[in-house]
Amino acid sequence: MGGEPLQSPPMCTEIFEQLITEREVRTVFQPIVDGSSRTVVGHEALTRGPAGSPYESPGTLFAHAALLGRNVELEQICIESALHAYHGLALGGRLFVNILPQTLLAAPSFAQWLDEQLSVHRIEPHTLVIEITEHGLAESESRLAAAVDPLRALGCDIAIDDLGAGSSGLKAWAEIRPDYVKADRYFATGIEHDAVRAEILRSVIEMGRVTGSRVIVEGIETRQQCLIALEQGADYLQGYFLGRPRRNPSFDPTSMADITVNASAPDGGCAAELSQPVPAIAADTPVAEVAQLLREHPEWSALAVIKSTDAPRPVGIVHRDSLLTLLSRPLHPEIFNRKPIASLMRSDPVLIEARARLDQVSRMVSARTEGREHDAFIIVRNGRYVGLGRTLELLRRLSAQQIQLAMHANPLTRLPGNLQIEAQLEQLLRRRRNFVACHLDLDDFKPYNDEYGYARGDQVLVHVAQVLSRAARRHVDFVGHIGGDDFVCLLRSEDWALRLASVFEDLCASLATFHSAEHRAAAGFPGHDREGRLRDFPLLGVSIGATEVDGSRATRENVLENLRKIKILAKEGPGSRCLIERQGQITDLVGLATRTPCASVPEAVALAGV
Predict the structure, then answer these.
(1) How big, in percent rounded to 5, are the helix, strand and coil portions of the chain?
(2) Least buried of 328, 381, 491, 544, by fewest C-beta within 10 Å?
């Protein structure tokens, strides 16, 4: 109920016993906000001990209870207080309460006790969300999942709290299949300066889309953290920026009024786009009635079976061909017509969350339908029936997606082309993100092509693309191919300098291998320059110009202009070079380690005659 990690407490048993006897706990509430509608969808109940006492802090209070073996008793007191306060304040929305895993495992009759308390306080079970904190999730996840079942049967939703704070969260997620997952506040703290945390949070949200769990990001304390969490696709948000824990909680919608996020489907579309609005049927519907429906609607290949119209959660699927073939056999109509459709349904349907990306849908459908003759699957949103999807339509969408991507990618390297490079740059600037823009091209690539042929030159370009792609952090950094021997990178990784150094060192070492042994021995090769004169050229080299971009002030024009100037400076020097502009100072890659500037931008530009 405290929602905070346990702490080592001072031992004040007498005060603690009085607290338990007189039920001296207070409940405060913190709002949970829907990222899309910007409205409050519920409140988390947080426990506080008596003000001014050694147990005012919930961490100390629960740690002392654990030492005395009084966890179950204390948590029941906290839940009673939360239910009483929630009803008295008429807060509305969902009520989130915390329970330690040990409590569920130690109290087999907990669900029965909770049912009685909900009845006393006149609160519907479906209003309650039980948060199982990850602190202490060292118990068997399968035992915990079994302990959760009675709460689900009661009508409560289940959440895993503080995901990422412990070591068992992902295993518990897989076993319990929660309705909500709360990402620990660690991932929101400093997310505006740490692309790695943002990437981990994005992965958690992606897993939520696949599993049907709604993700709540805790610890939102600034506008920028709120914006990034929304950009990553968070379903719900919680934190001081949206409302502090109070006896009478409040949320000011104007705090999010100027936060604009591009409203778009996840990259590549999502499962909801595949949904066909075929009505579901209740499990107790007679077989004859279902068969008649399928005869009247030959376009329906299957029907989802739900528990009841009041609880539209799929429990099975009936395939048209299978059912009608069965009923075409002698005596089978007489045997089955009056039976409920649940007796003939397939009880292990493929359920796909509506928010899942099409590539995720493809993997899940392929894994679940191998060896099956039918291609229909059920699409759900938060566990409730949405519609039916078909594998043929999924394949059609994926093919169209691949064609669309191919149209905008470089045909040789398959890297994003000019349109996608422009779009990525505009997106970073629009979102005011800091990043490093890099322009890479090869030195003396034209005479190399003339000497070795375009097929060999293409091999070099593919190699450069592979080196860049390996060095970039997936979903964080961006690599594009302008055309010819020109490449662009937009880096947001914290260790961007090391990644750039890796690219530079790799290419400096490997490009020579694309020359003949004779030319390597001579450290060059003969060729014609642009004026047609025969002369010697050095072995292939690489020039990289990079500029650090302050997303809060930069414009597209000054990023491109800075990049152009730095790239020209890199090309002016002999051999391979990597120059980086940072806060008006130009540093070479060797100087980067010691942060020794070579020259200011204006001085270097003037010297180079740019």
Answers:
(1) 45, 25, 30
(2) 328
Of 239, 220, 217, the C-alpha closest to 164 is: 217
Q: pLDDT: is 278 or 212 the higher one?
A: 278
The pLDDT confidence band at residue 309, using thresholds 50, 70 and 90, is confident
- Domain of 142, in residue numbers: 25-45+91-256
Q: Check whether residue 443 and residue 376 sit in a common domain.
A: no
> What type of residue is 521?
A
Evaluate whether 281 touches 385 at the Cβ level (below 8 Å): no
The structure's pTM equals 0.63
State the Cα–Cα distance between residues 588 and 184, nearest whole angstrom.
40
Distances (CA, A) of 142 to 138, 156, 177, 246, 589: 11, 19, 11, 36, 53
What gap in Å lies between CA 555 and CA 562, rounded to an integer?
11
On whether both 487 and 576 belong to a single domain, the answer is yes
Which among 316, 132, 115 is positioned nearest to 213, based on CA atoms? 132
Average pLDDT over residues 431-435: 83
- Spatial distance between the Cα atoms of 23 and 16, rounded to a whole number of angstroms: 10
Shared domain check, 566 and 501? yes
For residue 102, pLDDT over 70 is answered with: yes
Q: What pLDDT is stored for residue 21 in this prediction?
A: 82
Contact 571/446 with Cβ under 8 angstroms? Answer: no
pLDDT-derived band at 370 (thresholds 50, 70, 90) equals low
* Same domain, yes or no: 524 and 597: yes
Residue 368 vs residue 512, higher pLDDT: 512
Residue at 369 is within a domain: yes
* Domain of residue 431, CATH code: 3.30.70.270
Both tokens assigned to 421: 């490079």
Residue of 208, 242, 212 whose CA lies nearest to 227: 242
Residue 403 included in any domain: no
Output the pLDDT for position 227.
87
Domain co-membership, 106 together with 240: yes
Provide the 8-state DSSP code for 313.
E
Are residues 413 and 393 located together in one domain of the fold? Answer: no
Q: What is the DSSP letter of 526?
A: E
CB atoms within 10 A of CB 393: 15
Beta bridge partners, 443, equal 541
> How far apart (Å, rounded) are the C-alpha atoms in residues 127 and 92?
9
What is the rounded (10 degree) CA torsion for 220, 226, 231, 233?
50
> How much of the chain, in percent, has pLDDT values that exceed 70?
89
The values of phi and psi at residue 583, to 5°, are 50, 45
User: What is the edge-to-edge ordering of all strands in the sheet holding 302-308?
Assistant: 281-282, 302-308, 311-319
Domain count, the chain: 3
Whole-angstrom distance, CA of residue 538 vs CA of residue 87:
80
Question: What is the SS3 assignment for 379?
Answer: strand
Longest Cα pair distance anywhere in the chain, in angstroms?
99
- pLDDT, position 139: 55
Taking the C-alpha atoms of residue 551 and residue 337, their distance in angstroms, rounded to an integer, is: 67
Query: Using a CB cutoff of 8 Å and minimum separation of 24, what contacts does 196-203 make?
Result: 196/476, 196/493, 196/494, 198/228, 198/232, 198/476, 199/473, 199/475, 199/476, 200/164, 201/229, 201/232, 201/234, 202/232, 202/233, 202/475
Would 276 be classed as within a structural domain? Answer: yes
In this predicted structure, the answer to whether residue 387 has a pLDDT above a threshold of 90 is: yes
